[in-house]
């Protein structure tokens, strides 16, 4: 099963609409979007336009500090206007060299890492999950996902409670090993799923979040390794690979004996269709659309 990750922080309505349309046509089954009403409507509209069926919408939220829900900010008193951030941004979220378009920023931190004067900070963007998540489920989202990267246990428990009270068809837990060791990750998952029905939880095994800018085995290695850790724990969950995933992920997982329910691809999936998605005449140019769909279809087929 192929899951397109539009980006938990992607608030660009038109960009999401085009992405979902292309990948729905290409055969993707799940579409991961940010927790915004306008983004949900854009995704639903794109699926309708695609003329496809049996699609699922996953809404992602994170606990305090999660980089997926963070936005870059520039302190102009420290900025030397070197344009290093502009050159390294993979999402065209920085223009005029120093102005950040918050709607396009996905929190990848590449600009933060590159800034020579530490003029860039990453700020967590909070949302009212108690208000927005029930709306999402009532209006078409059938999967709610919680990124549990971070140490705010109180926020984790609060959001996890809200998600379960919404009673979506599935819940998803996105985990990686940036802050915790293998044993801690498994213990946290066990605690979270102890009152859930078997196989109604998806564990999204995130190798290195937002690292899928290249299409090689090394890039996807950690995603497969993270999935193996979950698999070895023999939990009653579905395993989905993510974080550095690309067209090599399924092949490497099979070579390593890792059995997966699905593969979520974000950075690489967006990158290969970016030039077509950003075409100014996208909706009126069927040739551009078909090129994007062909590229996307090849990636979707690699997951099978």
Please tell me about this protein's structure:
With 304 residues, the protein is α/β, with parallel strands linked by helices. The chain has two domains: 2-64 and 129-303, Alpha-Beta Barrel (TIM Barrel), CATH 3.20.20.70; 68-124, Alpha-Beta Plaits, CATH 3.30.70.20. The protein is 41% helix and 18% strand. The chain has eleven helices and twelve strands. The protein has helices spanning 13-26, 37-50, 84-88, 110-114, 129-138, 153-166, 182-193, 217-232, 249-255, 267-277, 286-303, and strands spanning 2-5, 30-34, 56-62, 70-74, 94-95, 99-100, 120-124, 143-147, 170-175, 201-206, 238-242, 262-265. It has an eight-stranded parallel beta barrel, surrounded by seven helices. A two-stranded antiparallel sheet has the order 4-7. A two-stranded antiparallel ribbon has the order 5-6. The termini are close together.
Lay out the secondary structure.
Blueprint: E1 2-5, H1 13-26, E2 30-34, H2 37-50, E3 56-62, E4 70-74, H3 84-88, E5 94-95, E6 99-100, H4 110-114, E7 120-124, H5 129-138, E8 143-147, H6 153-166, E9 170-175, H7 182-193, E10 201-206, H8 217-232, E11 238-242, H9 249-255, E12 262-265, H10 267-277, H11 286-303
Parallel strand pairs: 1-2, 1-12, 2-3, 3-8, 8-9, 9-10, 10-11, 11-12
Antiparallel strand pairs: 4-7, 5-6
Helix pairs in contact: 1-2, 1-11, 5-6, 10-11
Write a compact overview of the structure shown.
With 304 residues, the protein is an alpha/beta fold.
Quaternary assembly: single chain
CATH topology of the largest domain: TIM Barrel
Output the number of helix runs. 11
Uncertain residue segments: none
Global shape: globular
**What is the helix content?**
40-55%
Write the element-wise H/E pattern from the N-terminal end onward. EHEHEEHEEHEHEHEHEHEHEHH
- Whole-number tally of structural domains: 2
CATH class of the largest domain: Alpha Beta
User: Major sheet, described briefly?
Assistant: 8 strands, parallel, barrel
